[in-house]
Amino acid sequence: MVKRSFLGATVLVLASSIFLSACGSNNEGSGGNASEKAAGTNAPSANKQVTLTVFSHKAGSEAGALPDLIKKFETENPDIKIDYEATSTGSGYHDALKAKFAGGEGPDVYMNGNSEIEKVFAKSGDIANMSDRPWASELGDAVKALAQSTSEDKKVYGAPIELSGLGMFFNTDVLEKNGLQIPKNWEEFLAACEKLKQAGVTPIVMGNKTGWSAAVFADLTVFQNNTDTTAAQVESGELTMDAWYGPALKKIQQLSQSGYINGEQSLGMEFSDAAISEYLKGNSAFMIGGTWMISQLSQANKDFKFVFGAAPVNDSGNAKVNIIYGTGWWVNAKSKQLDAANTFVDWFMKDENLSQYVKSQSAFSPLVNGTSTDDQHAAPFAAALKNGDVIQPYIPSGKYNIDFWTPETKMIPLLIANKNANPEDITKEMQVARDKAVNK
Amino acid sequence: MATSSVQVKNRKQHAIKFKKGTLTYDNFYIYLLMVLPVLILYMVFKIIPSLSSFYFSLTDFNGITTNFTFLGMKNYVNLFQERHFIEAMSNTIYFSILVTVLQNTLGLLAAIGLNQALKSKNILRTVLFSPALINAIVVAYIWSYIFDFNGPLNTVLKKLGFIDEMKTWLGDESFALYGVVIAHVWRFIGYTAVIYLANLQSIPHEVIEASEIDGANSWKRFWRIIFPLLAPSTTINVLLAFSGTMQVFDIIYGLTNGGPGYSTEMMATYIVREITNNQVGYAAAMGIILFFFTLLFNGIVYTFLRKREANYE
Q: What pLDDT band is residue B21 in, cutting at 50, 70 and 90?
């Protein structure tokens, strides 16, 4: 009896601990603080070839022009050989990256977005400050602001190599059939929605299973109409969430209550698949999305007539697009081939090389006079980018890790579906998120 | 405390058996040697991470750098002040109870059905068990399609006149949790039934025949004879269902991602969200709470079921 009880108790503990060990297994550190020792710099000499390890998340077809560019670089720089290793983000790229740095075997150059990892690496001195590199002065203002958000001291640590963007898809066929042009501001947008609704068309399609469309729509609306918002105002509490997001959420509520959005239906759709399928049916005019979805739409239906541009949620002035730091090159500050690493990144950032990569990714160049994708579906987006009609999004100071995304993606879809939520509830949740991080 | 001469003799015999140097099946060390590889793996991948998890729960560890601060019990104090974490806890308990009850009730009924002398019983057993072999994410896709706005559930219900308008079932806060329960139970009903079936087949025919001769009707036979004799499989099924659902993640992630709102948010999905937000120390504290919760609830259930088993032994 005692044996059985012991056995039972053991089974209980084991069964209960499954999740616990999972929590503790993610305990690989990055190697701690910056080492005081100076990073060795072996300049590539004419006689000795150095091997540069480059770690990337662009594997297989995702790599686009990268393999060709690496060959080109090696031809033009015979002293440097590139040892390219790639793992897709879905296959644990970030974990592998952290583990490499933790084990003191960080690659000389690696690819990543401007994520929390880079913020930590910048603080610990694991990645090199590239503010003085020649290409840094050629970054557009909005791009530079994004690039500088890695650290509190506003230095450029990474070289952004592709920009993607957020905005709105316009079904030009549906708009034309209903005698409408692409709306340029909130007023025109509302009028178009009403006309489309009267014609039996669902004006806006969203995919809110994970709340993505709803949160992005709210952010676009907020940032187009609050140009002077600074992280300091939000973090100090000078700007309350209600004052910041309240007006935009009321606009969303207005759209929802007027029946302009596929409200409850959007809760069962993901923005990246079901919402696209719904939009491709051609029964709606507008869809919130990103530049990477352009190829998805055109590949799914070559005859589908659409363009991608700024969401017309602006009260006045020109509608603006939101750019995203797609991905970039980061140099390991403790690399023994620091000069070679810088040579590689500087070479890559030249428009003649960068444009090949950017085009292969259907993306946009981070350089002011850089060459971007020539896909005509993206023409309105490219024009806005060229005109400087670019949103200055909220860039956290880096002092706190405020999670606005969770309350946004959880609550705004409910507002859109006319469910148990109102703008005040949502801003209250966002305030809790801000307070939780700041008062931690 | 006098030791009897018989006890001393037994100990001496064991001492001879456990003698080092000879690795025979009578030797304790051969078994220790056999268990050792598993024990080492278990220590490395389970015990050490679990203990380190407890340590990290007292820090602000972000999962990236080892440069973290010791916070004491602050993470624990903070998480119990978090409304949505409490909501996730209550959702998890509610989900676990619902799934455990439904899975066992339906699994037992299925097992009784499959225990009959049917020609197609082997095919039926295979069909019933097959969902347990499907990956949770695939199950989530299947049920997402069923519950979809344009899915078969709406089509059937509308044709039968039960609903006037198509509905996004998983977008309904009051239904979403039940939707996930249905998908989860569907997946594991065959698994539960197979365990009950094995137990049913071990009940001696003589016992059933004797009750028939004594004039017991079908219901009495089931309730007074069969069900009590199923106590061992009930204990296993209930414990497996309960401990599994307390830590449910994959099917929630695939079906609703914890939404709409927080209506299907579970402790495990909450923990993963905090980890992805680089709040690993905070998430570890939640993991510890989940561990003790699972242990406590399973302990209560186990104690109750063991007592019940003992009554029928």
A: low
